[in-house]
Each structure stands twice: as C-alpha cells, then as structure tokens.
Input
Amino acid sequence: MEYRKFGSTDMLLSTVGLGGLLAHYEGVNGHPPPEEKQRIYLRAAELGINLFDTGYGDEVHIPEELKGPKDDRYFSLKVGAPAAADLEALVDKHLTNLRRDSIDILRVHHYGYVGDAALAERIEELKKAGKVRSLCLIRHMLEDQESYAERGPEPEADADLVIYNYVCRWQEAGIEQAAAAGKGVLIMKVSWQDKAQTDWDAVDESKVEELSPRGEGIRSELPLVYPIVSGPWHELAEPGEVVPRTERAVSWVLENKGVNSILVAFASVEELEEAVGVRELV
Output
C-alpha cells in the first residue's frame, strides 16, 4: 500500500480509503450482513488501509480493535451541511463511538460551508478545541465541482473531496491548484463499475432517470452524472473482459500525484481485494 501526505497536515494516508458502505449500496444492491462488514474493515486494515470514512450509519460495525487512539489510523466524518448549532453534537457522537478525542477529517458540503458563516465559524472553533483536525469540503454538486475546477480550493479549508475518474477528468485543473496551495485532495466516484454493464450509447438523459434508483431525484445532477455514466469505461477493460476491473480505474486515478487518497465503498472482502490488486480472477 502506498501512502501520501494529506495536504499540509502531518497525516500520511493510504492511497485507498474505505468509503461509506451504506451510501453506495442502499437501495441498489442491498446490505452485507454485519459480520461481512466487520470482515471488510479488518481485511482493509490488514492490507494497509488506514483511512476509514464514517457518517453513513455503517460505522457502528467498525470492529472494536480498530477504534481508540492510534497515530497511523485516520477517520473521516461526513456531516453534510448541518446547522452550526448541531455540529458539535454530531462530532461528539462519533468521537464517542470511535473512542477518540478528535475527528481527523471533517467533511462538509462546499455549498453549506461557503453559504453559512456561522457553520464555518463553528468548524474553526472545533478545530481550535482539538475536536477536528482538518476540514475537507465535499464537491458533489455540479456548481461546487465547477467552482473547484475554475478557482481551486477555498483558502480556509484543508482539503476537498472531488469527482475525478477515467471518464471525468475536468477536475485536473482544481487538483493542480490544490497541489500548488498545499491542500489535500480526496477522490470519490473513482469507478462506476455497475454502470459499465449498461449500453449507455443507446441511453439518453431521460433514460438515466428511469434506470437510476433515485428516479426523478437525479434530474438536477444530470449535467454531471450523464457524461460519467455514458463515458468510455470499456477502454479500461482487457481482452476478454466485459466489465473492467476496479483495480484499473483505481490505478488510473492514482497516477495523478496531486491525489492523496480515494474513497471506495465495498460490499465484500472480494471487492476490496480486487480494487487493491491482491485478488486473482478465477
């Protein structure tokens, strides 16, 4: 496992992090049983993964042996765009569950952070109090992605979580600006392996709504989502493969040295092992 320095912090993150299981699989593939989730966490640690993303509900399944203070294990917490008055209680809840004194990476939606001065102020207070070590802004919405590509990271934030993958490369400009400014970069949507099984050449944007588990709820994000799902993922496949291995999508992203770590959700130990390249096909 390779490790990279997280922006200007003193954290060395594994280039692959364990993403939120619940967020990826809810309503799509169902949920692995709790026993399998614990196996995923433990196997991830065995493989050298030291970044664990929480805030989706599945963190209750983190094995006890991975909790507690440890210098080389890091936890990211997604809180979305909460009211400033609610933030500390959210952080405290997760600190209690993790048996830690501070959240290593607090993830907040970019639009919430820049649009709510009280929230930004509260985050800074929690950092000064030692409950939060770094702030990562989530660039999930199209407007937030466009802002990152055009202007790069926010001066007050420590990092950003952006969409960047083989078929969605327009964040490279923002990543370059982040590297120049000493800001961290986390990546989401590295692989859309499930989408590679659909013939998107014959699908228009209205069909995406029909195929998506979110239905009409995905309409506002179509300008961002459609180019990704309709992109040439098949180019990553080797001869004889119908669907390219996740490992190749991961490796492509990590060729960009401005990327610190990617967050990938796994529903099984087998998926995890394939993504990090330690599982052979049978």
Observations:
- The chain has eleven helices and ten strands.
- Residues 193-200 have pLDDT under 50 and may be disordered.
- The first strand starts at residue 3 and ends at 5.
